[in-house]
């Protein structure tokens, strides 16, 4: 399966900038893996049979949750594309149930970036694209949102 943007490029259209959902989608999975490891370390140190069983059971539950959250975060990032071409902005989410947003660069009125303190530190944020007669679209948790905004708003000299 190829990238969505490669399937929909028009003649003369080229990709200028691509980004994806930020890796912070993996934070719940990372936390669950840490809890799993903590219970496994605790399992190695306890002497009581009951506590050993409890530690293993809790490690198994945390491990299952970690696997689930890792798989869902990976799948979400794999099925989400956000691109800027020389003609338009394209955002696609979903695999079977697909949702796409496309806006001509000529119709973009403004691009707002919203970053929390953590977003500033980790370089992610939300983009709100306002179009002339096109409405408003928000793209959440984009990696390098300022660079993405610049790719949308930068115009070649002489245009």
Descriptive keywords:
single chain, 159 residues, PH-domain like, 2 domains, 3-stranded antiparallel sheet, 5 helices
Which stretches are poorly predicted, pLDDT < 50 over at least 5 residues? none
Helix proportion range: 40-55%
Order of strands in the sheet with most strands = 1-2-3-4
Domain count, please report it: 2
**Taking Cα atoms only, what radius of gyration do you get, to the nearest Å?**
21 Å
CATH structural class of the largest domain: Mainly Beta
Order of helices and strands: HEHHEEEEHEEH
What is the distance, rounded to the nearest whole angstrom, between the alpha carbons of the first and last residues?
A: 36 Å
Profile the largest sheet: 4 strands, antiparallel
Rounded average pLDDT? 91
In the CATH hierarchy, the architecture of the largest domain is Roll
Number of E strands:
7
Assign the structural class, choosing from mainly alpha, mainly beta, alpha/beta, alpha+beta, or little secondary structure: alpha+beta
Q: Number of helical segments?
A: 5
How large is the share of residues in beta strands? 25-35%
How is the CATH topology of the largest domain named?
Answer: PH-domain like
Shape: elongated
What is the topological layout?
Layout: H1 4-8, E1 15-19, H2 27-45, H3 49-78, E2 81-85, E3 88-93, E4 99-104, E5 108-114, H4 117-122, E6 124-131, E7 135-143, H5 145-153
Helix pairs in contact: 2-3
């Amino acid at each position: 399966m190829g990238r969505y943007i490669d399937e929909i490029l028009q003649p003369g259209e080229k990709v200028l900038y691509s980004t994806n959902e930020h890796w912070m989608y993996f934070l719940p999975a990372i936390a669950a893996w840490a809890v799993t490891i903590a219970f496994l370390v605790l399992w190695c140190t306890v002497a009581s049979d009951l506590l050993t069983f409890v530690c293993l059971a809790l490690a198994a539950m945390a491990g299952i949750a970690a696997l689930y959250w890792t798989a869902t975060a990976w799948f979400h990032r794999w099925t989400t594309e956000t691109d800027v071409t020389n003609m338009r902005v394209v955002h696609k989410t979903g695999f079977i149930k697909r949702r796409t947003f496309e806006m001509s660069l000529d119709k973009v009125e403004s691009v707002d970036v919203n970053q929390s303190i953590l977003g500033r530190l980790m370089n992610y944020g939300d983009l709100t694209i306002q179009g002339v007669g096109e409405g408003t679209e928000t793209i959440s948790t984009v990696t390098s949102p300022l660079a993405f905004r610049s790719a949308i708003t930068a115009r070649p000299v002489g245009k």
